[in-house]
Predict the structure of Small ribosomal subunit protein uS4.
Amino acid sequence: MSKREAAKYKLDRRMGENIWGRPKSPVNRRQYGPGQHGQRRKGKMSDFGTQLRAKQKLKGYYGDISEKQFRKTYEEAARRRGDTSENLIGLLESRLDAIVYRSKLVPTIFAARQFVNHGHVNVNGVRTNIGSYICKQGDVIEVRPKSKQLTILIEATQLAERDVPDYLSADHSKMVVTYQRVPGLHDVPYPVVMEPNLVVEFYSR
């Protein structure tokens, strides 16, 4: 598994945006990049730079995705019929770790990846510990019985900073989530503007 070794919020400061919409983000206090040169005036970014930034932001948002895995997801999105940028968002949101995060079972996408890896989740009654597992419409994701009393679950379901999107049906009393449908870009509650069309341009150069 690839792992984000640098501090999570470094991405926020580099982008100058609160990527995950978290109250503790340093961008809420100062909106410039990290390091001694963070406050320098930035020149106009090239098309390549803009595309690269859009890719880094989208890839970083989903936590521990490696470049190899992210490119593979793009290639699958391009292979499918329809709009590649919409397909890309649909695939990213169909990941098991993304669904666990979106359904408010855990507080962060990083915690979601760890929660799944530690074997706390069943998909359609089968224990699944792969964060990148792609769920299908109608799949039922459930926290395993022995894990339902974990403090992280109880605290996360009570967080007021985000809501469960309507493409998921979550019953927090039973710790069960149903994946109702594959979302498009406008269905996903990103705290910042994501530009998957620029990610497609980056990879299709």
Summary: Confidence is low (pLDDT under 50) at residues 1-6. The CA atoms of residues 167 and 180 lie 5 Å apart. The chain has two domains: 8-25+45-92+190-204, 98-186.
